[in-house]
């Protein structure tokens, strides 16, 4: 079985070259070819010996995903559908904001969290993505931007999958993405989004990393949240917030709460009151997200007026709140939409 070169962090590469009797700097050269010069062929690594190149070629794959579809929206949001070496389909999205380029990356093939509004769960989890497969999406998008002389500034793990259900691979990929000798994207520009796997929030809190944490909240009480998100039955709000308080102990870290606007369901006055209570004392803000309607689901998005109304309700209650710009709504930009369509043969 061929290995994927991007599954090897710098330490793994060092171990690999040591076993061949070579020094650390060979590993650093390979690493730099991969992430700084971003070549996609071992033969282009001109400061490696012929022997080493031949060896790498016989043991490692360097092209581990291929693009099978690309859609670009009017607002330049670009969605990529990739095929992995085993045929698994994975989506990533590139968005353009006034603060720069941001990529939304997948962490699993399908998802088992079963959120009732989400297109990703239309297809159950097939497997986790390896660290290299997570990283390769970012690398592909950076190479795409290289052609335009542009740089990817932000990463959000908000594609298909639950990052905290694939914890180790996610952390390993992010380490290379963040590494100044790797893709060099600042920790503050990397966000991990979770549906609320509480035990992993404790683990994440203990890491020495400064990535942002985003929680998909979507409802301010257990009754509604359990209806929308099955994970809430395993880790109800009380347990989730206990974990978040622990996370916040360190420097009063800031937490982002994502809150989908589902009209008539979670945008009522009662919901605004409950949200105010729930977030009291935390250094938090709510990001209201317009719902991307999914054909197979019955939820309706709040229109602009309704969204503003709820935004104002929260402002009046002194809740820090932002309203996310809608992106790519003329393409299949909701998590899992493009992949689900492709699998259905549409
Ligand atoms: N599993 C993680 C990350 C992937 S989902 C999580 O739950 O956070 C990323 C975000 O997109 C989550 O907040 C999710 O609830 C939201 N989302 C899912 N389907 C959506 C849709 N159709 N429209 C808008 N946001 C959606």
Can you give a write-up of this model?
There is one protein chain. The relative contact order is 0.12. This protein has helices spanning 10-19, 24-35, 50-59, 131-146, 167-178, 198-205, 222-228, 231-234, 237-249, 269-279, 304-316, 337-343, and strands spanning 3-4, 60-61, 65-72, 78-84, 89-97, 100-104, 108-109, 127-128, 152-157, 190-194, 212-216, 255-261, 284-290, 321-323. It has 346 residues and is α/β, with parallel strands linked by helices. 36% of the residues lie in helices and 20% in strands. The longest helix is centred in the middle third of the chain and has 16 residues, at 131-146. The chain is built from twelve helices and 14 strands. α4 runs parallel beside α5 (167-178) and α6 runs parallel beside α9. It has a ten-stranded mixed beta sheet, with helices on both faces. A two-stranded parallel sheet has the order 1-2. The protein has a two-stranded antiparallel sheet with strand order 7-8. Bound molecules: S-adenosyl-L-homocysteine. The site of S-adenosyl-L-homocysteine has 19 residues, from β10 and β12.
N-to-C order of helices and strands: EHHHEEEEEEEHEHEHEHHHEHEHEH
Distance between the termini: 33 Å
Q: What fraction of the residues are assigned to beta strands by DSSP?
A: 15-25%
Rg over alpha carbons:
21 Å
- Mean pLDDT level: 93
Class by SSE composition: alpha/beta
- Order of strands side by side in the largest beta sheet? 3-4-5-6-9-10-11-12-13-14
- Characterize the biggest β-sheet: 10 strands, mixed
Q: Could you name the ranges where pLDDT drops below 50 across 5 or more consecutive residues?
A: none
Bound molecules: S-adenosyl-L-homocysteine
How many DSSP E strands? 14
The count of helical stretches stands at 12
Anisotropy-based shape: globular
Summarize the amount of helix as a percent range: 25-40%
């Amino acid at each position: 079985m061929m290995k994927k070169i991007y599954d090897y962090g710098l330490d793994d590469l060092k171990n690999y070259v040591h076993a061949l009797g070579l020094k650390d700097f060979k590993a650093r050269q390979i690493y730099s070819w991969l992430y700084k010069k971003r070549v996609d062929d071992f033969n282009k690594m001109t400061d490696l010996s012929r022997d080493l190149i031949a060896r790498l070629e016989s043991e490692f794959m360097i092209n581990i995903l291929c693009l099978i579809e690309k859609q670009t929206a009017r607002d330049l949001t670009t969605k990529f559908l990739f095929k992995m070496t085993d045929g698994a389909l994975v989506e990533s999205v590139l968005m353009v904001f006034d603060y720069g380029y941001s990529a939304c990356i997948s962490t699993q093939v399908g998802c088992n969290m079963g959120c009732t509004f989400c297109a990703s769960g239309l297809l159950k989890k097939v497997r986790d993505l390896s660290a290299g497969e997570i990283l390769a999406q970012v690398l592909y998008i950076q190479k795409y931007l290289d052609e335009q002389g542009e740089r990817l500034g932000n990463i959000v793990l908000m594609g298909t999958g639950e990052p905290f259900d694939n914890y180790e691979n996610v952390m390993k990929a992010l380490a290379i993405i963040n590494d100044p000798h790797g893709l060099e994207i600042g920790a503050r520009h990397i966000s991990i989004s979770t549906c609320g796997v509480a035990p992993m929030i404790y683990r994440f809190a203990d890491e020495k990393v400064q990535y942002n944490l985003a929680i998909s909240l979507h409802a301010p009480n257990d009754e509604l949240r359990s209806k929308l998100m099955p994970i809430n039955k395993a880790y109800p709000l009380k347990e989730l917030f206990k974990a978040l308080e622990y996370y916040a102990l360190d420097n009063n870290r800031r937490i982002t709460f994502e809150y989908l606007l589902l009209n008539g369901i979670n945008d009522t006055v009662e919901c605004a009151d409950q949200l105010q209570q729930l977030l009291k004392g935390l250094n938090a803000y709510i990001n209201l997200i317009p719902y991307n309607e999914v054909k197979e689901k019955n939820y309706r998005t709040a229109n602009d007026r309704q969204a503003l109304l709820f935004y104002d309700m929260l402002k009046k209650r002194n809740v820090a709140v932002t309203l996310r710009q809608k992106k790519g709504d003329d393409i299949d930009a909701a998590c899992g939409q493009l992949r689900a369509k492709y699998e259905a043969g549409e």
